[in-house]
Input
Amino acid sequence: MGIIRKTKHFQKVLDILLKQENAVSANYLVTHFNDEINKSTIYRILDKMEDDRIIHSFVGVNGLKWYAKCVKCTVKEHHDNHPHFQCEKCNEVQCINHTNNATKLIGSQFLVKSVLLTGICNRCF
Ligand SMILES: [Zn+2]
Ligand SMILES: [Zn+2]
Ligand SMILES: [Zn+2]
Output
């Protein structure tokens, strides 16, 4: 985790992201903060958090951008090379951590961070 600039807005957005177990969409944050924090400020804060290796982003169903907490990322680089799963019923998105790169099989590292799996989650099943 990088240095967190504790502006009031930054802290509020961070609180939401840390409280959520699953990923949060940019749209959700914009709606949640409605008049309190404007859209461009929210996007700026999210960019900053991604730069600081606090969160990582990926694209979900319908091209919506989602954000999730980083687990093992260092100050220098992200290690979020994992696919994401989105439930077709409730739209919740989860990180699928612990995905092994099949280096023996493929012979080189391959990127799975842009892979989106869809289906029905445990709760909706
Ligand atoms: Zn990360
Ligand atoms: Zn679901
Ligand atoms: Zn993730």
The mean pLDDT is 86.
